[in-house]
Amino acid sequence: MRRTRRVKIVATLGPASYAPEMIERLFEAGVDVFRINMSHSSFDVVKKVHAAVRATEAQFGRPIGSFQAVQHHMADMSTRIDAAGLAAWRAVWRCSLGSDANAGGLEAAVAIAKVAAGDAYVETTLMAHQLHGGIGFTVDHDLHLWSDRARAAALAFGTREDHLRALGSLVARAR
User: What is the DSSP track for 121-160?
Assistant: First the structure.
């Protein structure tokens, strides 16, 4: 099913259109690119919708949204989010060991998690603005709310620099 038109049809998937059957109907109607509205759902829901889009792509034998630059940015964002999640889980694990555990290891794990999560949140929301053509820097879209929250969260419980400085001190003491 090769399309030769010069324009691309973009559909935004939201709660009313997350179902795989709806994605298929939209694709058959001519949609070339799907974007997923994350403001109404959790990351797990977005992963399921992404899988449904990929399944439709495989079913019809044609890539959906095959813009390489977008794919690369999406892969980078996914990697950052996954790394931040792993760092956070490691910090939680270190905390669960209690105060008997190596305090330096706990402090380092928390500092790494805070830096990774803060960076991932800010960088991902800023890249989302880029991928959506700059929408959301004003109040025309809810994306600005996510960017504001990301910047506020990056400052909560100490800045990136505070945690990197603490991490540096821990490394210096360990030597």
Answer: HHHHHHHHHHHTTTTTSSTTSTHHHHHHHHHHHHHTTS-H
